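S1.2 Input.
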Amino acid sequence: MHVDRGLAAAEDREPRGDTSRPNRSRLVTIAIWLLLAICVAAAFAAAFAWRSSVRADHRHQAEATTAAVAASMASALRRDTDFMASLRATVATRPRMTNSEFLRWIAEVGAQKRYPGGLGFVFTAYVPRRELAAYEKTVLADPPLAAAPTGRLTVLPAGRRSAYCLLRFAPPLPASRQLPLGLDYCAAAEVKGFTSVRPARALDSAARSGQLTVNPPDSVVDGVFFMLAPAYRGATAPTSVTQRRRALMGWVTGTFSGKAIVAAGGGVRPGMQVEILHRNPGAPPEVVARVGAAETGSAVRELQVDADGPWTVRVAGAPAVAGWSATTQFWFVLVAGLALGALMFTLTRVLARSRGNALAMVAAKTGELEHLALHDGLTDLPNRALILDRIEQALARARRQGSAIAVMFIDLDGFKRVNDTFGHAIGDELLRAVGSRLTGLLRESDTVGRLGGDEFIVVVEGDALDGGPEVVADRIRDVLAEPFVLGPTGDVTVVTHSSIGIASGFGATAEETLRAADVAMYEAKQRGKDRYVVFAPEMQAALEARVELEVDLRAAAETLDCFSLVYQPTFDLATSEIKGVEALLRWHHPRHGVVMPEEFIPVAESTGLIVPIGRWVLEEACREAGLWARRGHPLPIAVNVSGRQLDTGAEFVADVLGALDAGGLDPSRLVLEITETTLMRDIGASARHLEGLKALGVRIAIDDFGTGYSSMGSLQQLPIDALKIDRSFVSGLADGSDSGALIRTLVQLGKSLGIETLAEGIEDSAQLHELQREQCDSGQGYLLARPLTAEGLEQLLSAAPTPARRA
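S1.3 Output.
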């Protein structure tokens, strides 16, 4: 009754003959047609904007592809050049090498498998006339190709000359490709492989410059070219042309396939052309290999392999992009926009005639609020609440249907560095791009969500897991490892990797399953990042143990009185004399006893506690070494340095200077050991940090050398005094692996650069004898001496200061 009376009163209050309704109707009609015009204009604007966006995206994809090809090519050429330098050093330091030893060295190193494009390698000897008879005797007893039919060496072309350039080491060749044994390359007018330049000119140019040169190929399309590296007595090139003439032993020649090098760098796609250019000393750059074809006038990208280096990679054109063209997508968006505008026009006319318009607006707003409550504001992906709901539903389906389900916890490696380097705007754009890639990779029935920060969740179920969740995780890692082209102008390229934790059908609840995936992701981080790990129940216990260890370590780092140092001697492998010590950290845990560094150093690294702990180690080591020097035992002492310490820059330099002053230690007796992986992550920043330390007078050593890849060019940028060969290579000496050849290469690399080599982990006499045979400078290990306390080391030095004592 109350409602009826209200409605009646309202009707009584309405004036008779109201003329405002027709006016309102006309205004509504005008507004509806105006809306239609706006929709048409918006459809055209959206279509043009979409076409521009697609074209920019295609252009960015092409630029990222060409940049990746150029970078991979540069790495392959750098490795090939470094191998030629190692081959030259090996020949120069082993003058009594036989042809079979030469070929065995090539095979042990795996030259044609490990170094892209390598087809074959030979050594041409420089033979003065007075040494021709001796060369003839040697080469006939150890023929590089086929034995001379007459039993004598016949020089071709005939004639007496002051010197000859004759083949010494080479693999056996088919009869159709054999060259005369006595062919003098310095006198022959033309030789296969040297048809563009007289052989004498190519060999003489390399010998005079002392540098690696490249002989122009017959056809750059065939892509086969030759690298010449002169070898001199003493392994290093003399400084003057006259001295180089006197010390010349011959030339190492490598035959390389440009097509194979390009293929190793990822190959070319339709629409691209890759060229390899080389600049010989005193000559302009020349194209030595060309693969693929690009349209005339295409964009060209050039990449210098090393700063001011002789190699250049040139990539022309752009790879074709799969999918619809920008014009096709323009018409699709335009038609869709016009259809949407027509639909909105029709709906608006209907809603304008009814009170349902207000209800529809309320419903739309409610939907928007619900969407905002369940989706991430940055990426528009499902947030934690919606993710947990999706996992709960997937678990219910899996239990009901007996199907598979996997939850993957994805964390981007090094995302903080992206924010610090390029700013948070680029970081946010990267997160949106990651979400877009993940969404495009998976099915519509799968879920991609973001928890926050750089953490993403993927829920996969059903037949997508037929190959196992590891297959899906591998696809995710691969797609996220492709370069991201970011920024308003596409001038920022970011390469990132991901650590993925997998919980496969685990847990009774969504929370338990998500927690299991989080634990597995954390385990992937601990194992080195850029990988996936499937959850196992013992990981939870390991995580809890690590948390407990971190709590105890924080307490220990506050007082530092639970830490101590032991000292492992280093021996001269030629004289067996003690030539230094390495300081090793020990943690005396109140409940667990002595904790070794490999157990707590990773925790100290990840938490930043390594900085105060490392400062204490420096101070204590310098104090002890200063005491030994004042007592008549001036030994160098080596201290391990963390990447977190090195990153503090000037603060770490001040820590080193303070430790030296407090301990009264001569800076030349302090050796800072830094792992190869730490130095190679940013070679420019590492060089700057090390220069600041070298200015103090300390020495620098690369620890665990050989576990990562460092080119000779990279090493030459760093002020390094010593290389510590990783114990994994030393332990492999006795099992018939390639460790012997690798150690030989590393030792020769150190000698060619004038850097001391030290092998760690020597545990039996066979390893020691092999390292002595390879002329490794120094070594340490349980065979020679175990780590000692400061008092124990002083007793060892006092009892026998020079001979090595076996412990």
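S1.4 Remarks. The CA atoms of residues 319 and 409 lie 34 Å apart.
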